[in-house]
């Protein structure tokens, strides 16, 4: 794989081209089993350590400004047992939403003023990180989207968040206030605290 040796474990066609790899060599390496194509134009070395979340890795390289959110983030943070049918990502309003064939994605367009609120990252493969909302922001977002994604999913996520050692109710309320769902979040926290 000659010129490919200088590339990271996961890379795009553009990165390979910038490193001097001809597309025919790139696709020959894929066809020969040296590379795995995670998504159109996103490759991972076959000899690289296994990725815990290859779909999130592929999406993050295809849509670097996007942030993993809602059920996809809840699954990573162990706030749900739901298995999302598509990678759920958020992009700020006013940006062009990414179009991906594989893996399937569901794009949410959110207010730029609160887009960076609760932004975190998680390691999805050794040494490779993706942007994701924090557990507290994820629980609040699920409460905010409870009419679309399900009331029970939101309440389970909130309960699991509050049971975590690193749970911070003050952060939860700050996110809820900024995202205009303080009333429902406070009411749900009160119910969960009383039970």
Written overview of the protein:
- It is a single chain.
- The chain has 2 domains: 2-45, no CATH class; 54-194, no CATH class.
- The chain contains 9 helices and 8 strands.
- The protein has helices at 13-18, 23-31, 54-62, 70-76, 135-144, 146-149, 151-163, 169-178, 182-194, and strands at residues 10-12, 35-39, 42-45, 67-68, 87-92, 105-110, 119-125, 128-133.
- The strands form 3 sheets. The protein has a 3-stranded antiparallel sheet with strand order 1-3-2. Strands 4-5-6 form a 3-stranded mixed sheet.
- Helix 4 (70-76) runs antiparallel to helix 5 (135-144), helix 5 (135-144) crosses helix 8 (169-178) and helix 8 packs antiparallel against helix 9.
How is the topology of this model organized?
Elements: E1 10-12, H1 13-18, H2 23-31, E2 35-39, E3 42-45, H3 54-62, E4 67-68, H4 70-76, E5 87-92, E6 105-110, E7 119-125, E8 128-133, H5 135-144, H6 146-149, H7 151-163, H8 169-178, H9 182-194
Parallel strand pairs: 5-6
Antiparallel strand pairs: 1-3, 2-3, 4-5, 7-8
Helix pairs in contact: 4-5, 5-7, 5-8, 8-9
